[in-house]
Write a structure and sequence with these properties.
4 helices, two-stranded parallel ribbon, 5-stranded mixed β-sheet, Transcription Regulator spoIIAA, 117 residues
Length: 117
């Protein structure tokens, strides 16, 4: 799986450079997120190039979110295309993940103090 990372503030942006996240590629995504969570805790997964995701892709993201939460961090998502967004809505995972339209907005959200005006 083709992935790129960028450090920005207190977060690491993980850009998925593939059009599909399925059973074939989800394991690579899961390993990548786990490694980043262990090192940085706050991960932003940019899914703007992903046009298709199946349940194994969702599972990889959920696994990363659980690991990050256990360490006091988080996994946030950005750039969901319509088909991928509908999967999150159908499974109600849009209520579990913080989802942003743009990478910049999502990256900034890691730097905001919770409870601040």
């Amino acid at each position: 799986m083709n992935l790129e990372t960028e450090e920005r503030g207190s977060a690491t942006i993980l850009r998925v450079q593939e059009s599909r996240i399925d059973a074939h590629s989800a394991a690579d995504l899961k390993v990548a997120i786990a490694g980043l969570v262990a090192a940085r805790r706050n991960i932003l997964v940019d899914l703007s190039r992903v046009e298709f995701m199946d349940s194994s892709g969702l599972s990889a993201l959920i696994s990363g979110l659980k690991a990050a939460n256990a360490l006091g961090g988080s996994v946030k998502l950005s750039g969901l295309r319509p088909h991928v967004k509908s999967i999150f809505e159908l499974t109600r995972l849009h209520r579990v993940f913080e989802i942003f339209s743009e990478v910049d907005e999502a990256a900034q959200s890691f730097n905001e103090v919770k409870g601040a005006p």
